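In the laboratory, one determines a bound structure by crystallizing the protein with its ligand and collecting diffraction data. In a computational setting the workflow is compressed into a single prediction: the sequence and the ligand go in, and a structural description comes out. We illustrate the idea with iron/sulfur cluster.
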Amino acid sequence: MSCENIEPEVLEKMENIVVFMCNECGQGSANTAGVARMAYNPAIRIVRVQCTGQIGPIQIMDALSNGADAVACVGCCLGACHFFNGNVLSMHRIKLLKKVFKELGYSDQFVNQYTSRAAEGETAVGDFEDIVIRLATAIREEGTIKDGC
Amino acid sequence: MDVKIFQFHGCNKCFNETILLNGESEYKVEFIEDPKNWKETKTDVSVITGYLLLEDREVLDKIKSNSGKIIGYGNCATTGGVFALANQRGYDISPLNKFIVDAQKINGCLGEVEELKSAINYEEPSKLKNLCLVCGRKTTCDYLDEVKRQIELDDDTTCFNDLGYLCSGFIAKECKERCIDYNAPCRGCKSSLERPGIRMLGMFGTLMGNIEVATEHSELGATDKLADQDDDVTDSLPDVLGNFFRFTLPTSGLPRGRIPSSGNILNDVFAGRLIEELPLISGLLGGDHSISLTLKIIETYEKANQIELSEPTKKYRQELLELENQLQEAIKSKDPEQYKKITDEIRKIGGNMNLSNVFFGGFRTQIDDNDNFEDYKTHVFDVVEGTYKNGSVEFKIDPIGIVKEIIIKEV
Ligand code: SF4
Ligand code: SF4
Ligand code: SF4
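The predicted complex, in structure-token form:
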């Protein structure tokens, strides 16, 4: 599955996808992608944070209840967090939040977490694509999260 | 001062607690059990107890236009409370502030009557410490290697969270009922900040940092992502909502649940909860039947799974049941002295009015200094899948101990 196969009416429903990217590998890879002029879905809104470890359920739910269709965090590769283990801690919290969504009867694909490599723009763009694909699955199955928030 | 107490839906424990105001000469208290048919009269203070539904708006508007001040008393009124777990299944139990923006809130399950009094008297709310600061257990906040669902009682100095047993004391204020003093973790009924559930979720997620979380290789761009599968993180917390959002689901900022409802509110509150949490929930919401309800649920399971009960356990449980009968009499006659005397007795055995001390197989703390605690000490019990039935209570437990269905006839 790639982004090209997503139906236009599904893509249309993706207006704001908030991606918290850490200042190191996350933002670095997005910069590299930008320099290489790689294209990605225009709904992606990057929010630069020092480390994905700063992002927790509060920030994610704030984004979702203020109009985001999906939220993701992009941090450094596993084992390569520039602080200590912010990316891993963030993963644990997001995993629990995903479970909360399931317990409420929602898809768990509205929140996700990724890693990327600063020197490789395609890692960031690949993550964006995966976010869009996962969100498309959720929208097809049950509509946008706005129908519930 | 005219004080009117209105009981809306569900549990009536907070409503009953206001009987204690009856003994004070400065208040003229009126108890209104059927707010819908209330004949409007002006009043100085109105107190709202029980959970609220959207259809209550009209009645609440009437109360508002007749009252000098409105106070929501107990979590059911202030944040939706334990009944609002049914919002997971499409209910729309709503906090009082949704209807009356400036209503004052006394959080707690049970609400504390001392705080209610000071609110009625327009006194400044007292500054309370965080619960952890007054807890006998000490925390290190080290990462956990394992999360436990039931705790062994041999360590009473280490923080429950450090032992791998989640406790919401981090987001709670010091309280009167003090579950933590009875070897029961705090579930955060008296929260110290906004959106406590979601903060606890972030906090506990962090504490779980050492526990394996499943990741997978992403073909796109070739990095890693969170895997779409259950892992040790999700498996060790089978009921996140029921444990972190027990009292605050409607005010948590989470979307309203859309799991199909069973059509019965108690079933919807209990479904999804864990077997070991059942007494902590039935003790909360059973109103003036909470003792018999809790014991019935516990004993149904014990009997079917041959959990032996010692004589002292049976004796104390019998005493609790007798106290419940007496309490119902005191409630009928609205006698504050009797009510106080009996609830004090209940607290001596049950720990608090939520019965934190009551558990499967015995009690969690020593009741009387002259007792040998070993005679009735609870222990970790096995989760056994099955359908359990005993007269008015019937419930189904799945293999990991989640309540699938519960039918409660009398409450
Ligand atoms: S469930 Fe708790 S908050 Fe609600 S009325 Fe009963 S004791 Fe009060
Ligand atoms: S989290 Fe619970 S057990 Fe730990 S210190 Fe706080 S109140 Fe005590
Ligand atoms: S210890 Fe019990 S009574 Fe006190 S805040 Fe926590 S849940 Fe509420």
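The beta strands of chain A are 17-22, 44-49, 70-76, 111-116. Keep in mind that any predicted model is a hypothesis to be tested, not a measurement.
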